[in-house]
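S.,

As promised, the adenosine-5'-diphosphate run. Input:
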Amino acid sequence: MALFPCLDGLPMSHRVLIPHDMEAPPVLPAGVTAHRLSGAAMGTSWSVQALAPQGVARDTLAALVQAKLDRVIREMSTWKADSGISRFNRAEAGSWHSLPDAFYTVLDAALSMAADSGGAFDPTLGPLVDLWGFGPEGRHDRLPDAVMLDAARARCGWQRIGLDRARRSARQPGAIRLDFSGIAKGYAVDLVAQALRDAGCVSWLVEIGGELSGLGVKSDGQPWWVALERPPGDDGQGMLVALHGLAIATSGDYRRYFDHDGRRYAHTIDPRSGRPVTHDLASVTVLHRQCMVADALATVLTVLGVDEGMVFARERNIAALFISGGASGYRESMTPALAGMLE
Ligand code: ADP
Ligand code: MG
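Predicted complex:
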């Protein structure tokens, strides 16, 4: 039987994506209440819609969500001098650090992604991110010279981080600056979703700064329909995905960038050159069960570009949409896993 037998009422102008290898959404128990929450955190906005069981008040959900967001910031924000990650970044060369759970989980995932992507994802790019004006040190429009670039590159390198998985500890090799901005938002989405599950919710849509995760159906029986983000000015035919048991993340060159001498410098750095990526990808969207993985993969595919990225995604059965080009026209490339979800 189809996962969602009733697809009435969808805008005809959109293509529709349905996950196929999923369990059917749970039937909503009697007495569930729909709640909407929103706020600001991690330099962006967030929102949660959830169907809560009887006895779980809105304030309870709000406190749960806030606690998870606070935890991500406390452990992993490079914008806070007293966070766990900032303390690690300042720590002495050769020192070992026992990591709190969230920090450990994200570092472990980030290093695995770095290994699997041949270093296209690198959670140690802090000095380069700052050099190009995308980090906590703030924005500037001048371009770094070769000496500055070499100095920053010498301080990066995910292979230099020691990770002791048995002790859940990491070694600061000296002057390494971790930067989880390419993965932490996705992790935070997963953490909030898990908190909703623990609270007994059977249906939700969690969103932080454009990364989302959804489960189940709304009160009207419809899944959480989410439009895949498209670059501004792109008038291609939109896509809607039924976000059930699935998360979505987009990396876009229009999200954070500066222009200099007629060129756009966006905030994804190619670790091979130490410079912002140069190919003409405008955005990459990835669907995955875990938002943390979708978030990191969107960055990986942005670094690799359409050609290399398509090979990487095909080999791993990743559902991804690449949009290349610019104001003069956009082109779309879908991986087979994404095309397989088209209704
Ligand atoms: P957003 O969701 O805000 O568009 P992304 O998930 O695309 O952000 O991540 C971009 C951020 O990740 C950058 O601002 C930078 O801090 C960091 N970053 C840039 N290049 C890389 C890379 N190659 N690997 C890992 N992190 C990166
Ligand atoms: Mg990312």
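The pocket of adenosine-5'-diphosphate (ligand 1) is lined by residues 121-123, 125, 129, 134, 179, 181-182, 185, 251, 255-256, 267-269, 271, 295, 298-299, 303 (CB under 6 Å). The mean pLDDT is 93.

- D.
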